[in-house]
Amino acid sequence: MIKQIFLLRLLWFCMLFQVCDKSFCQTTENRFLVRGGVGISSFSHDGSQIDMTQKRLSLLLGGCWQHYFKPTSHQKHWMLQTTVQAVSKGAINDGDIMDEKVYLRTVYLELPITIMYRICHKNTYDIYLGGGGFVAYGLGGKIHAEKNAHWFLGIPVGEQPSPFERSCGMRRWDAGICIEANITTRRWLISANYSFGLPYLWNDSVKPSSWLEHVQNVTGGISFGYFLK
Q: Rounded to two decimals, what is the model's pTM?
């Protein structure tokens, strides 16, 4: 008798698992795409734009995974979006002495994760809006000053070291918040994105010039993606 009850419960569990698994598969969907884009990057000083700091061109290239959660209502659903991308950031500083300029360019390997919500559904396209966070690791870059700047962070004029070198003292790790709005079709994605780094870019072991104290990365732009699945 106990054995029969056990077998009946096992059969019931297997049937329930099959129903749940089938239901879950019907309410989720995964899509993969490659994406590239262009934008602008700059530095923020405790949340405000730094005086005399110019924006630089920012480029990104990477791959993206989208996981859709479809509720009963076909008109609304949520999506989890994870991207792995290489992105360039930086800024140009116009000095107030002898009109010198300092150029900084970095390249990060970045991982943004966002939760997207569909705010508009049409036959040929959907519109999503969402936000989340990112982590990034500095792969390389360069920093240099014009000839009128006789020294900068102890770097002789004419040399272009990576800002992540010990002598420059820039942190390799960055993290922050990001927001995105995109238009998704069957094969294409067009998105506008903005990210704001929270940690200060320079550590305490190297004292930078005044315009680099307490600065954070700020990047915004547009990107285009093509769905592989």
A: 0.79
